[in-house]
Design brief:
The structure is a homodimer. Chain A has about 475 residues and is α/β, with parallel strands linked by helices. Chain A has 18 helices and 16 strands. Chain A has two domains: about 5-75 and about 395-470, Urease, subunit C, domain 1; about 75-385, Alpha-Beta Barrel (TIM Barrel), CATH 3.20.20. In chain A, the strands form two sheets. In chain A, strands 5, 6, 7, 8, 9, 10, 11, 12 and 13 form a nine-stranded parallel sheet that branches. Chain A has a seven-stranded mixed sheet with strand order 3-2-1-4-14-15-16. Chain A has helices at about 50-55, 95-110, 115-130, 145-155, 180-195, 215-225, 240-250, 255-260, 280-285, 295-300, 310, 335-350, 365-370, 375-380, 380-385, 415-420, 430-445, 465-470, and strands at about 5-15, 30-40, 45-50, 65-75, 75-80, 130-140, 160-165, 165, 200-205, 230-235, 270, 290-295, 320, 405-410, 450-455, 460-465. Chain A is about 40% helix and about 20% strand. The longest helix of chain A has 19 residues, at about 335-350. At the A-B interface, helix 3, helix 7, helix 12, helix 16 and helix 17 of A face helix 3, helix 7, helix 12, helix 16 and helix 17 of B.
């Protein structure tokens, strides 16, 4: 059997560096090819450059032309809960009562395998419609759910990170498991799924508040036995949660509850981190660990404003992914996550510019809170990939990487979008700045309707115009 | 010529009281009629009740049945800028530089009458697509723009409040006018448009920062000569703005800059009010004046978190409308405004529950920050009508009022919406609680795609399935 080769022609936009490192010339961090060609072989990017230069080298390759779109690397959702797909947007509570009232009962339903499979279908369909091609996901305490998750991801050949979720405290009966079962389930799933196809495994203590010392010890043991897997959890999300967590674990801060068990290092992600101290951020930075910034969720549950500019301090930079945190977040779209990330950043900007209180003035940190389109889209592509140590695999269009991408329609969204974008460009972007302006428009004026097509390993898995009928029917 | 009579059959949801007054039983504030009939005569609601009871009384009236929808009063947008329709979502600045960089140049383009007319078309089409049937709008310093606004509103027979916008400072040349011209233009427009059809006039000092003492005096004189018109302006939006304003006007706080000129009373609305002190709120309450809460804008420009729970203090309640503040706000949809209003409220809730700092603990105020679906939808219908002293004209379905309404499709929005709402109801809401759950879902999970139809004075002016082609083309 020969190799399967194909190519995509269109306007490409991706990143080669962290734009926060180039505040005076963000364009240095990006690549824009107005008329580009991406050659794909067996799902891997074989060649990438201008159509004019490259096309002669591939005379027999079938080219799919995607005009009037911006083609970006597939979005990465660094923090999301499979089993909360249906109960996103549940009313009226902060984190802890919200978990008890809405989340644990719904997650329990996934122990019915039929329901779990249905949930997985909805979950992945929603991701693809949102332009998300990679996620790091929580499942439930039940190993069959994580297994269903990996099975559904494999069907789509998507690069995903997940694992059975460890929780032995705080949740109602039937929503917890013993550390011993968790250890055994994790081991079995890990050996079955880690690096099986595009699947990656994460040891997943749900959050320190829901994990006893024994559960943490089980995680520590797994991490030691399998040093190349991920650790995915929550950190420092809500003030009440933090207080109870410190009491339970007897630690000086939230991060220490994970450090105690050797969990904080490369491929560790703590979701949220709203209330991380400067010192915790410093330790995360030194460890090479990451935080997932989940603005829609942090606002929806009222947790507060993540200190984006502090996390991007060049003296102690914290690796960041951005996450929808469905269902603490209320929208699957990473464009929507960027909308609210921008707003959190601007609120921080005001608090740090000295106008409210000169004692808080920090001009450099204020500036780092401004989420330009470069910073924004880097964060949900290459930036998230780096935080997950996947920068050699996904995140941009450098040859050798996996061909996951989205085709974005800058006129999608509320009715006013088209007239708005006409002020930015006439017949499509011709410069990197114009393209960046359209990206900003898509995150602030457009929405998930901007995602016209989503491709995974060189195959189209979602197309807006054809997908709607299938999704609209009852499952 | 006889009267024109028609009727609408469907599931109706409206309000009869402020739900904040009934924290233990919010249902007392609302009406839900699962199978209802609204009889309309010459655009006015003639009768309203259950279909079973009423239909026999109107045997010859043609009934339009709108199934599978929730019919609510048309939404009211208490604070919006006509001439910022195209530049919503402009990148990277707080209020004052944002005005200089993006807003004043765009507003100036409206002095070309052709452009102003085009802008009005887009503006009203966007409002109707968002389910908004009444707005209180800023125009520009140019009287022809306000005239174009009222002309376009009259074509649609919409109830609107607006006026020429007074600014003689702070803006670049060509974006200001003299107090004398402002006075004369206002007088002419006011006599032409106030209570002409459904139009209402507002004396509109743009904001205290942009108005000299002479401009304020012109407003004071107009208010004295025409005591029944509106006053529409901004108040206490951004910390830097506030500081400069107090310096310019030599007042102890922002509100006093308007009080000094007798502008604060019934039919006065100050947009934003993010940084209003307790005492300013008290004075607004006593005066019977109003504030327009604009959460998307306050977040987009980084102004901060409006103290919703304080404004609803029963000891000094502030009349509130909610506003999109296009283009400081980035979406026309009042459903989206509710999404972010909820989030602002929840962030306040956390700050007031004592978990961060016991000194700030205020359980009652924390609770008043929770934007239930009752509070939310009251706020953008009857609540806003009350803040504008229009509760006898619009805001609910009581006979005698004008027949402005929206038909909402709870399955509209991101792809996951339909599966989500199936968990709330099966074949449409049968109880008030079920209907309220769907309303909450529409504001947090759905979006403007939930607005299926918008009717003004008993006429359908927008229908999602038919509107798209017309709006998608270039103007």
């Amino acid at each position: 059997m020969g190799t399967a080769r194909s190519a995509i022609r269109g306007s490409f936009f991706d990143f080669v560096d962290d734009p926060w490192k180039h505040p005076d010339d963000e364009k240095k961090s990006a690549r824009f090819i107005q008329d580009g060609l991406m050659v794909i072989e067996d799902g891997i990017i074989k060649d990438f450059g201008s159509f004019e230069t490259l096309s002669a080298n591939y005379p027999h390759v079938q080219v799919t032309h995607i005009p009037n779109r911006l083609i970006l690397p597939g979005f990465i959702d660094g923090h999301i809960h499979l089993a909360q797909t249906r109960v996103l947007g549940s009313y009226g509570e902060q984190l802890l009562p919200w978990l008890q009232k809405w989340i644990f009962p719904e997650e329990k339903r996934y122990s019915d395998l039929e329901y779990a499979r249905k949930g997985c279908e909805h979950f992945f369909n929603n991701l693809l419609a949102a332009g998300t091609t990679t996620c790091q996901a929580f499942t439930t305490h039940d190993a069959t759910v994580a297994d269903a998750f990996f099975t559904a991801a494999t069907t789509r050949n998507m690069r995903v990170i997940s694992g059975v979720t460890g929780i032995d405290m705080f949740a109602p009966e039937g929503s917890t498991d013993t550390p011993e079962n968790f250890y055994n389930d994790s081991k079995k799933l890990l050996e079955k799924w880690h690096k099986n196809g595009r699947n990656l495994y994460a040891i997943t203590p749900r959050f320190a508040l829901g994990c006893s010392a024994e559960m943490m010890t089980a995680c520590q043991r797994l991490r030691k036995e399998y040093p190349d897997v991920y650790v995915n959890t929550h950190v420092s999300e809500n003030p009440t949660e933090i207080r109870v967590c410190l009491e339970n674990h007897g630690t000086k801060d939230y991060l220490e509850a994970y450090e105690k068990y050797d969990l904080v290092g490369p491929r560790f992600t703590g979701g949220h981190g709203v209330w991380l101290s400067d010192d915790e951020m410093r330790r995360i930075s030194i460890a090479g660990a990451a935080v997932s910034f989940c603005p829609t969720s942090n606002l929806f549950l009222g947790n507060g404003l993540f200190r984006l500019g502090k996390a991007k301090d060049p003296n102690q930079p914290v690796k960041l992914s951005f996450g929808s945190d469905i269902g603490g977040g209320n929208r699957f779209s990473m464009l929507h996550v960027l909308d609210e990330a921008y707003k959190v950043g601007m609120c921080n900007n005001t608090m740090l510019d000295g106008s409210l209180d000169p004692r808080f003035k920090n001009t450099a940190e204020a500036e780092r809170n401004k989420l330009s389109p470069y910073r924004a889209f880097w964060s949900i592509t290459l930036g998230s990939a780096e935080s997950l140590y996947l920068q050699d695999t996904i995140g941009n269009f450098t040859p050798g990487k996996e061909a996951d991408f989205v085709a974005l329609d800058w006129t999608g969204g509320q009715t006013g979008t088209a007239w708005h974008t006409e002020v930015l460009v006439q017949d499509g972007p011709t410069t990197m700045d114009e393209a960046a302006n359209l990206l900003f428009s898509m995150m602030m004026v457009g929405d998930d309707r901007c995602v016209d097509q989503t491709w995974v390993m060189g195959k189209q898995l979602y197309c807006q115009s054809t997908a709607k009928p299938a999704l609209a029917g009852k499952y």
